[in-house]
């Protein structure tokens, strides 16, 4: 058994862990990292963000082929099986692993591959794949273990027709129809993906509307386009029991409805990966969803233990997690630390959604005088050329100061387009002004010029141009 001594020990090598480890090295600290998969990248690279978005991209290509008039007139279209699409999507995982492994090697972060658990103050043991145990001592410890799908005990996830958002990436057949329980971000994304493959989808939502944290108009647009693609969205429904046989899965809803399909995808919440850490050894406790409470410097209730990423809950975005990890390195050195709260949402439905700032509902409830500027992609030359003319860009701005209060985008490349507005929103004082988009020349034709169109439309509403 060997002893290792680090200034910083990071448990987990996903976005939060990587951000923390590399930033700490740049601060001149000796850093070690523990990963239980055998390869770096965490759930983001292997089960979450990367494979699901790569899967979406392949499906999007299939859809565009089938909708292209050239091939349609030639009598050509294609239906591709889910396993084939999945195989194509998975090619990106090895590239991501190689890339991120190089980051750790180049920055001289010492990697320990095994299962981590606390032993006592400033001390962690790592159980290696061969059964051996290493004990590591560190001045500061960062928990960045991520999360996994929440699995209620009354659902049999061992049944070959019952999946969660991790195991769906191993499904080896193409169902004719599928029930998705849970209409959050992950459920909505997979509803788009399966519908794009021509699979009939029942999307069960326990709430009144889809993704209620979005601007109402964007949520309504998502609901419309899911239904337009063949998804049956069922609001205000909860399951009573689930029966799975060799031939099908039946979901019994509390409303009395019975839904039957070839497969069930469970997408109802996530659980922080803290249950195997032996937190009691350091007098630390996770909540009922396995998440840790932190302060504005990402410290847990134990002052030398920090946490970041999915394991601390909202916003549970890879982008935010990476920045949170980097900020911990600042906090450990006693430098100013930013608590990441302003990350834009990126939702990879078909079409995708991205949002930043306030919604109309929030501004109305706060009695803020605002106006709306919209640009519909169907009127944008670039969208017409590319054939992706569904969606719009929406800007909310203050009537008196012209400050940009919120930006909401639904349509192709929304998660890219949002960053133009984000750059202006982050400017201080008068620099955050909707007139920027009117007074700036955008390339033509581009999707970016939607900002100019939206700004002009909004300013025309108040006759202040």
Q: Which features would summarize this protein structure in a list?
A:
465 residues, alpha/beta, FAD/NAD(P)-binding domain, Enolase-like, domain 1, 3 domains, seven-stranded mixed sheet, five-stranded parallel sheet, 22 strands
CATH structural class of the largest domain: Alpha Beta
The CATH topology annotation of the largest domain reads as: FAD/NAD(P)-binding domain
Number of strands: 22
Principal-axis shape: globular
Number of helices: 14
Give the distance, in angstroms, between the N- and C-terminal Cα atoms: 73 Å
Q: Mean pLDDT, as a whole number? A: 93
CATH architecture of the largest domain: 3-Layer(bba) Sandwich
Low confidence ranges? none
Radius of gyration: 24 Å
Could you give a short account of the major beta sheet? Answer: 7 strands, mixed
Percent range for helical residues? 25-40%
Q: What portion of residues belong to β-strands?
A: 15-25%
Oligomerization? single chain
Give the count of structural domains. Answer: 3
**Estimated structural class:** alpha/beta
Mind telling me the CATH superfamily name of the largest domain? FAD/NAD(P)-binding domain
């Amino acid at each position: 058994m060997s002893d290792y001594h680090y200034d910083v020990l990071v448990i987990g090598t996903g976005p939060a862990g990587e951000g923390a480890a590399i930033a700490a090295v740049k601060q001149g600290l000796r850093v070690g990292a523990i990963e239980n998969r055998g390869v770096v990248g965490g759930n983001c690279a292997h089960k979450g963000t990367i494979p699901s978005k790569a899967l979406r991209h392949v499906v999007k290509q299939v859809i565009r082929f089938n909708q292209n008039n050239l091939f349609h007139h030639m009598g050509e279209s294609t239906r591709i099986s889910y396993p084939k699409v999945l195989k194509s999507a998975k090619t990106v995982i090895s590239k991501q692993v190689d890339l991120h492994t190089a980051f750790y090697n180049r920055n001289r972060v010492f990697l320990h591959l095994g299962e981590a658990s606390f032993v006592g103050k400033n001390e962690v043991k790592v159980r290696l794949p061969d059964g051996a145990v290493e004990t590591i001592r560190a001045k500061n410890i960062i928990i960045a273990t991520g999360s996994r799908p929440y699995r209620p005990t009354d659902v049999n996830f061992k049944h070959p027709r019952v999946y969660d958002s991790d195991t769906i990436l191993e499904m080896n057949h193409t169902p004719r129809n599928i029930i998705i329980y849970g209409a959050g971000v992950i459920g909505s994304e997979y509803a788009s993906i399966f519908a794009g493959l021509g699979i009939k989808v029942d999307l069960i939502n326990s709430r009144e509307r889809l993704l209620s944290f979005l601007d109402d108009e964007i949520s309504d647009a998502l609901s419309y386009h899911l239904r337009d693609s063949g998804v049956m969205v069922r609001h205000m429904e909860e399951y009573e029991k689930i029966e799975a046989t060799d031939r099908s899965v039946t979901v019994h809803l509390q409303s009395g409805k019975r839904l039957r399909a070839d497969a069930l995808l469970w997408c109802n919440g996530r659980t922080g990966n803290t249950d195997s850490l032996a937190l009691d050894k350091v007098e630390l406790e996770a909540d009922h969803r396995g998440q840790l409470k932190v302060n504005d410097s990402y410290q847990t209730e134990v002052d030398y233990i920090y946490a970041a990423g999915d394991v601390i809950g909202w916003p549970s975005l890879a982008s935010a997690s990476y920045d949170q990890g980097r900020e911990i390195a600042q906090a450990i050195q006693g430098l100013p630390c930013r608590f990441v709260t302003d990350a834009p949402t990126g939702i990879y439905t078909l079409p995708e959604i991205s949002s930043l700032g306030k919604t109309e509902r929030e501004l109305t409830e706060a009695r803020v005088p605002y106006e709306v500027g919209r640009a519909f992609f169907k009127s944008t030359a670039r969208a017409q050329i590319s054939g992706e003319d569904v969606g719009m860009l929406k800007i909310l701005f203050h009537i008196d100061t012209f400050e940009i209060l919120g930006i909401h985008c639904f349509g192709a490349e929304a998660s890219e387009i949002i960053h133009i507005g984000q750059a202006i929103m982050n400017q201080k004082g008068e620099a955050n002004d909707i007139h920027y988009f009117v007074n700036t020349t955008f390339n033509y034709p581009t999707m970016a010029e939607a900002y100019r169109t939206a700004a002009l439309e909004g300013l025309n509403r108040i006759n202040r141009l």
